[in-house]
Every structure is written in structure tokens, then in C-alpha cells.
Design brief:
The chain is mostly beta strands. The protein has a single domain, classed as Metal Binding Protein, Guanine Nucleotide Exchange Factor, Chain A (Beta Complex). It is 9% helix and 28% strand. The protein has two helices and 13 strands, in the order βββαββββββββββα. The strands form four sheets. It has a five-stranded antiparallel β-sheet, with no helix packed on it. One of its GO terms (molecular function) is metal ion binding. Keywords: Lyase, Metal-binding, Zinc. This is CENP-V/GFA domain-containing protein. InterPro entries: CENP-V/GFA, Mss4-like_sf.
Length: 164
């Protein structure tokens, strides 16, 4: 399915094909929370990098977050934002060169609705999740994980019969 996305001010937009468009995974890590706007978690989906088309590239800014502020280790993802309004648009990691990760909040196209029971919650460890954020207690039954889940984005879509 082709997705259309844009920033808040309209200076940048993008399109990307996604075979995994359901926004099912909430990441509570400090990088996602803070880059996304401080709402407690961020939701990204996956697209096919070779199909990414961006307009307003002159307004795009990049940010590579520190995974560990003590060791200065960088996160693998580069995050792309609108330099005018600050909207986080997508992330890219060359280690997964075929994929790009648009932020669900930047997508203008209708996305599949995910039932609350099917939502996964990741990075719930004390170093990641803010103490004021309400989230399920980590356990496989809750689809809630201290770090990463027991499934991939592609596998979750297959298991839930959501294929595009």
C-alpha cells in the first residue's frame, strides 16, 4: 500500500510503499519519546526504502541520537525531520538498507486500525520508559517487553492477517 506523509507546516512530504502499515508497536525509549514530541511513546511503521520519494528536501534535517550518553555510542538510525516545524518524518538505518521507518504520526493516508489487545509495547525498562508514562507491566501475555518483542514487524502482520 502506498502511504502519503507530511510535516505539520507542509514544507515537506513523502510517499513510500509499505507492506506492514499497521501501527501496532509503541516504543517508550527516550530517543523515540523525545524525538517524537514527548508523548510517552512513538509509533513507527516500515516501508520499502527504494520507494521513498521526498519533496521539500531542502527543509529536511537529520539527527543521529546517542544510544548511550556515557559512552557516546550512536544509535543506528538517522532520524529525518522538517527543519521548519520540527515534525519527525521517518528514520533510516543502513544496517537494514531495504527498509525505512516512517513515523505513524506523519502519515496522512488512512492506516489499518489495531485493536488494543494486539498492540505491542517495547523498551519498558527503567532506563527507557519515563516514570510518568502509563504502560502495561512487561510480560509476553501483555505484549509488553523490557526491550524488544518476540516478533518482527513483518511476522506480526502475517500473524494478524494484515497483508498489503
Amino acid at each position: 500500500m502506498e502511504l502519503q506523509g507530511s510535516c505539520h507546516c507542509g514544507k515537506t512530504s513523502f510517499s513510500v510503499v509499505s507492506h506492514t502499515p499497521a501501527p501496532f508497536m509503541r516504543c517508550y525509549c527516550s530517543i523515540c519519546r523525545k524525538c517524537q514530541g514527548g508523548g510517552g511513546y512513538a509509533i513507527n511503521i516500515m516501508g520499502v526504502y527504494s520507494t521513498l520519494k521526498v519533496t521539500g528536501k531542502e527543509y529536511i534535517r537529520e539527527y543521529k541520537a546517542l544510544r548511550d550518553k556515557t559512552t557516546k555510542e550512536l544509535c543506528g538510525n538517522t532520524r529525518y525531520f522538517c527543519g521548519e516545524c520540527g515534525s519527525h518524518l521517518y528514520a533510516y538505518n543502513p544496517a537494514y538498507a531495504d527498509s525505512v521507518y516512517p513515523m505513524a504520526c506523519a502519515i496522512d493516508s488512512p492506516l489499518p486500525v489495531v485493536e488494543p489487545k494486539d498492540i505491542y509495547h517495547i523498551m519498558l525498562n527503567k532506563q527507557s520508559k519515563a516514570n510518568w508514562v502509563l504502560a502495561p507491566t512487561p510480560s509476553p501475555e501483555n505484549h509488553a517487553f523490557e526491550e524488544y518483542p518476540d516478533t518482527s514487524i513483518s511476522q506480526w502482520h502475517k500473524d494478524n492477517n494484515i497483508q498489503y
